[in-house]
Amino acid sequence: MKTYRIAVVRGDGIGPEVIASALEVLAGARRLVAGFGVELIEAPAGAETYREQGEALPASTLSACRAADAILLGACGLPDVRYPDGTEIIPQVTLRIELDLYAGIRPARRLEGVPGALAGDPAIDLVIVRESTEGIFASLGGGIVLGDQLATDTQVITRRGTERVVHSAFRLARRRSRARPRVTCVDKANILRSFAFFRQVFDEVAALYPDVKADHLYVDAAAMELVRRPEHFDVLVTENLLGDILSDLAAGLIGGLGVAPSADLGDRHAVFQPCHGTAPDLAGTGVANPLAAILSVVMLLDHLADTHGDPAPAAAARQIEQAVTTALASGEARTADLGGNATTSDATAAILRKFGSSHPA
């Protein structure tokens, strides 16, 4: 039996609360599915860690993350805890850089029982793949301000960076088992040479996947079409900043960041985390929505199954998905942001009760 090491970064604000819920649900799924084990490794990071230890991402935490099979990350950062230069505590971005996590996977799927933002509640099931190491974010900490009249940041698009994230998007489209998988390149190639290059490399990679349809949209048109007909999309791949923006738009269509999980993947390491922030105003009140963290565990288990050729974690992921679906449909897991009145612990308990159910109660 394979035992997987999971580094747990609980984070700040509501991070520890929703990660605790996610771990409860993981433990519940493991009781139902034999054949694999989990070893949890506590790996502190974030604003509170910086306040206590003087480091936002201690060397011991980075080492634990490097040694883990996967990393479960709670949101990090607090508005009143900053570095001496005034910048925010963002160990999650440092992890992306240190572990070379180049593919940000941001699924958006409308769940039964969760009110969407669009009339008619279209059947939304898409994934945004965001290049996470380049683009305009490559200027992180390196932008230039001249006097008080001019500021510049430089966008970086490389062949290597683009090829590997586009390959990730096409491989993901194949795994999604659509009758006709599709990958859409989102860019601004009509204006910027860097994006024209991104599109050129996309087309070269697309030619290697003749079974997957490839198309293009400028980012302004993509934003409009995500609102007009989101059911049209399968997988979208784009640059870092554009992906950052579009993934929040997509989350808004399916009920908000409270139901939006994510992954940051590299060739050797993987981080899974809810898309939402630390929400310090909600911390300690017991009302935070744990679903994004719980669904991030589903992604984590599927990743373990895929990378290790092990069906047991995937079976546990399906148990969690079914329990979440059933608990939402019954209304028992709807927190305030979803129009319900369930607390964090109510939603977690509802999901645990639904393990083994085949239909909504």
From TrEMBL:
It is an enzyme of class 1 (oxidoreductase). It comes from Singulisphaera acidiphila (strain ATCC BAA-1392 / DSM 18658 / VKM B-2454 / MOB10). Pfam families: Iso_dh (PF00180). Homodimer. Keywords: Amino-acid biosynthesis, Branched-chain amino acid biosynthesis, Leucine biosynthesis, Magnesium, Manganese, Metal-binding, NAD, Oxidoreductase. GO terms for biological process: L-leucine biosynthetic process. This is 3-isopropylmalate dehydrogenase. Transmembrane segments: none annotated. One of its GO terms (molecular function) is 3-isopropylmalate dehydrogenase activity. Its EC number is 1.1.1.85. Its cofactor is Mn(2+); Mg(2+). InterPro entries: ICDH/IPMDH, IsoPropMal-DH-like_dom. Belongs to the isocitrate and isopropylmalate dehydrogenases family. LeuB type 1 subfamily. Residues 5-351 form the Isopropylmalate dehydrogenase-like domain.
